[in-house]
């Protein structure tokens, strides 16, 4: 089907941040609007894919034509993603918190006047992209993102290997770029042998191009 090249294909996309609770009213998180991940879910659906979007807490609406699962924490995001395998395509866009609070409190931690605050003990979160990239039911195409503030390309290359991804979409999220939370993005597509540099585009345009690239790859693989 020329019009809908991803008809019959399934895709899982993660988007947004994760919130890792400290106590019932406080959390630690990464900055992420979910705009790029949500746009990719919508773009894959527009090409005919059956898309599950696993979204952390965001303020933007669920995309149309996509099944959205809402989660808070990284461990919930991992469970939601794994429960949707097998799939043809995985695009892990979420800004997952690398650490969670080792023993989050069931009750609000009270401030005690005159006492030093107790330090937070952190534990490492599961790496969702890495888990999917090395899974027995690994999707045919696994794509990760790399938001960096320095040595963007070298870091992305390392990530390709360690995470078992086919492509890494790298962007420089230094505050001066305005990319974080903004409507535009400037990315490099990094594969094992090649780097493609895309111009400054809207996040919707980036999403459309990524969906097209995914369709081309899957079709050429047969
Ligand atoms: O290692 P880093 O966080 O920079 O890698 C970014 C890529 O890995 C993104 O695709 C992100 O969605 C994914 N990731 C993940 N689970 C984590 C950390 C990152 O899926 N715990």
Notes on the structure:
By secondary structure, the chain is α/β, with parallel strands linked by helices. The chain is 27% helix and 27% strand. The protein is built from five helices and 14 strands. It has an eight-stranded mixed beta sheet, with helices on both faces. Strands 2-3 form a two-stranded antiparallel sheet. β9 (141-148), α4 and β10 form a beta-alpha-beta unit. The structure holds cytidine-5'-monophosphate. Catalyzes two sequential steps in the biosynthesis of coenzyme A. In the first step cysteine is conjugated to 4'-phosphopantothenate to form 4-phosphopantothenoylcysteine. In the second step the latter compound is decarboxylated to form 4'-phosphopantotheine.
Helix content: 25-40%
Shape: globular
List the uncertain runs.
Answer: none
Strand order of the largest sheet: 5-4-1-6-9-10-12-13
Task: Draw up the topology in text.
Layout: E1 10-15, E2 19-23, E3 26-29, H1 35-46, E4 50-55, E5 67-70, H2 74-83, E6 89-92, E7 99-101, E8 122-124, H3 128-133, E9 141-148, H4 152-163, E10 167-172, E11 184-185, E12 187-190, E13 195-197, E14 201-202, H5 203-221
Helix pairs in contact: 1-5
The chain binds cytidine-5'-monophosphate.
